[in-house]
Amino acid sequence: MPVHPTVLYYNTHGGCNQNMRGVMRSLGVKVDLFNPKQVAGYGMSASRARYLIESGHVDFVCSRYDIIVIGDTIPHGRALLESLLEKDTMKQCRSKIVVEMTNRFDWDVSDKAAYYNTISALVQLSKTTLKDKLFWVANNNVEKAFLEHKVGVSMPAVRVLRPLGVAPEYPYPLDLPEPSTNLFAARQHYSTVYSVLKRKYNIPIAVFPFGHKYGGPKNLLRFKAFIDMPYEYSTMKLYENIAFGIPMIIPTPRFLEELYDTGIHKMLNPYILQNFPVSPDMLPFKQVAEFPAWSAYMDYYAPEFAPFLYYVDSYEQLKNMSGMSAAELDSKNVRVEGPLFYAKYREEILGGWLELFRDMGYAYKMNGEGANIMMQL
């Protein structure tokens, strides 16, 4: 086995690419990037996966890399994964495969029954014949339980390797509202919640259009705080904003349920999490004491991050916060403490990647860049 493996990141998400560059740089490993949108859209079908196996795409990719990490939308890597079930060993991917789950193990898949059968078979084989070839990791707490619930299978141990909180800095776009510490910032998604906050409660918010770049988290420091109504169980910007010291306002679990129940914010269904193990003897993660057990599966409510987040339980509480100055609002001193926390936490994350590489047969040590990697991308 070579000392330095060749690594390919098979992923479409820009934030995930930045994160993986940081991880691999900390290990002194060169990583290549491949955007699978070049060969398939979201929710790859079984027939498209079969075509990519038979046409030689899988062989072409796997013959060139020792390790392939499938990131963000896992169905984009369906052909690589399904090849592992081929009876003809010449059609199987020869690389070690790391499945990095990030809320999207079944994103946009239409033939879910067939896809879940594939995932179920791979999970079982990863405990036996594929245990040295197929590895499962997640960048947040929900992934293992979510897959087990959907597929009906018990997974092997899944490492939680959260993002490093890295992000490049770009100029603030001139077509967005002028930054001000008198304004909250938010990013529009498929939700009416921000319109309600602005029109009904007269809360001053600069709302960035969905998909519009705003220059990275450093530009958010020019606002009073960032309001984040979760649209997934975790997002890259959650970690980035803590790492850069952005005060963030998050709805409590109770308020999140209210927003969902009233139809104001239907982007994320919190009730799914109540189907996961939540009894004290089965809950796999710690929870904030005053929050319900299901909240432990959402990184927005993880105890390690709670000291750097501001939770609101009502519209009125958020309205009251809008009348505070930036200094008054940031009573936890997140602008200072967030980056200090994440610099230390980043070393823990990188340690998890080190352990993964050791499990794959590669003995690595961090090259000393881990704590400062955010500033070197």
**% residues in beta strands:** 5-15%
How many individual helices? 12
**Main beta sheet strand tally, sense and closure:** 6 strands, parallel
Shape: globular
Mean pLDDT score: 94
Which strand order does the major sheet show?
2-1-3-4-5-6
Counted beta strands = 11
Q: What's the helical proportion of residues?
A: 25-40%
Contiguous uncertain segments of 5+ residues: 373-377
The H/E string reads EHEHHEHEHEHEEHEEHEHEHHH
Structural description of this entry:
With 377 residues, the protein is an alpha/beta fold. The chain is built from 12 helices and 11 strands. Helix 1 links the parallel strand 1 (7-10) and strand 2 (31-34). The longest helix has 26 residues, at 334-359.
Please sum up the structure shown.
The protein has 377 residues and is α/β, with parallel strands linked by helices. It has twelve helices and eleven strands.
Secondary-structure topology with pairs:
Layout: E1 7-10, H1 14-27, E2 31-34, H2 46-54, H3 57-62, E3 67-70, H4 78-83, E4 96-101, H5 112-125, E5 134-138, H6 143-151, E6 159-160, E7 184-187, H7 193-199, E8 205-208, E9 225-227, H8 236-244, E10 248-251, H9 253-261, E11 310-312, H10 315-322, H11 326-329, H12 334-359
Parallel strand pairs: 1-2, 1-3, 3-4, 4-5, 5-6, 7-8, 7-9, 9-10, 10-11
